[in-house]
Amino acid sequence: MKQKISVFWFRRDLRIEDNHGLYEALKSPWPVLPIFIFDPAILTKLTTKADARVEFILNAIKDLQDKLIAIGSSIQVFHASPLEAYEQLSEQFDIQSIYCNHDYEKYAGIRDGLIQSWAELKGIQFSTFKDQVIFEKDEVLSGQNTPYTVFTPYSRKWKEKLAQNPIQVYPSEILSNYLSVETLLPSLESLGFEKAGLSFPGKEVANPLIQAYHAQRDFPAKNATSRLSVHLRFGTISIRSLVNQAVGISETWLNELIWRDFYFNILFHFPHVSEGHAFRKEYDRMDWRNNEAEFEAWCSGQTGYPIVDAGMRELNTTGFMHNRVRMIVASFLVKHLLIDWRWGEAYFAAKLLDFDFAANNGGWQWAAGCGCDAAPYFRVFNPTLQTQKFDKELAYIRKWVPEFQELTYPQPIVNHEFARARVLEAYKKALDR
């Protein structure tokens, strides 16, 4: 007879500590087999074999493996479709239940629905839990029971709800109801990838940095941000632990964590943003120039605007871009070059180590003026003024665009005043239709 087991399916929650779904699985009556699935449907969409995110995931899985081996277990890793992986598991074990944490993206919903249907046909319990956000779905609604589409009132209600509902942690690290198995992990090469050569930030953030965040966060030359976004993206740290750390120390840093919940809330309530549409659908009527040579100049950091080029070169080199600079380069692409925000969204999706669809889509729609809580379309960032305000000593620019004062550096790709007038006219025409 096959051994009866429960399965915990790691996805965006690559940690043993304070993991809600894992905690529930380990309380089940059956020994738990942890698994991870490298899904070809996701991997084949990546544009380079040196995608650092695959390397980051594999490193996180190795950390999990070390911790599991220490308690006599192991994680089983598949390189297959989820359905194929579960079919293989069901041939080896008598699966009683599958546990995992919620994933809110469009493909994830389809994938989980398929596995849930398969499990039901097999008589297997399929359970998912809230883990990567503090509040989700209908948990934070307006007084009219409608979803918020503006951040400030959402954050106010979010904080009220937090005060009424203290964060519950899930001490999964103290439970040990694991299946005793030994498995080998795949190599990066066996998955079809290679090392990217990027360095990954640590998981810790010191209280002094959080305390100074409000005053320092907008200056890209300063080491004043936590760089935890990649860890939040893949769940190598718990959002609950970070919120507990932020409360009472920095309202500004706490707000950054609330923005994550806000964008997941938008994704849940307004699924059309997952289908290539502007949140405000009237902005789908925009006539974009979409000049491919200018887009390439933007991508490669050759626009002739040093602050824009510095940001793009930082992104291309490190997989990271400072948040203030993200707003500047996004505004430039959309409003100076009149290039569809979806082109920029896709480029960031391919390059950002911390890429998360909800936040990336929300940020680009904000910059384009077509999203929820968006910067109005007539706000056009002036790169020169942004430089004077946030990189006055040119330290960030000198780091990434050392040749910006040389004759070899390109002339500005477009005049700011001309570009501003042009984009305002384009928006006006679209909205007048």
Automatic annotation (TrEMBL):
One term of GO molecular function: deoxyribodipyrimidine photo-lyase activity
Keyword annotations of the record: Chromophore, FAD, Flavoprotein, Lyase
InterPro entries: Crypto/Photolyase_FAD-like_sf, Crypto/Photolyase_N_sf, Cryptochr/Photolyase_FAD-bd, Cryptochrome/DNA_photolyase_1, DNA_photolyase_1_CS_C, DNA_photolyase_N, Rossmann-like_a/b/a_fold
Pfam family, one: FAD_binding_7
Coiled coil stretches, renumbered: none
Cofactor(s) for this UniProt protein: FAD; (6R)-5,10-methylene-5,6,7,8-tetrahydrofolate
SUPFAM superfamilies from the UniProt entry: Cryptochrome/photolyase FAD-binding domain (SSF48173), Cryptochrome/photolyase, N-terminal domain (SSF52425)
Keyword Secreted: no
Enzyme Commission number(s): 4.1.99.3
Domain Photolyase/cryptochrome alpha/beta span(s) in chain numbering: 4-134
Membership in a protein family: Belongs to the DNA photolyase family.
PANTHER family on file: CRYPTOCHROME, CRYPTOCHROME CIRCADIAN CLOCK 5 ISOFORM X1
UniProt-recorded name of the protein: Deoxyribodipyrimidine photo-lyase
Organism ancestry: Bacteria, Pseudomonadati, Bacteroidota, Cytophagia, Cytophagales
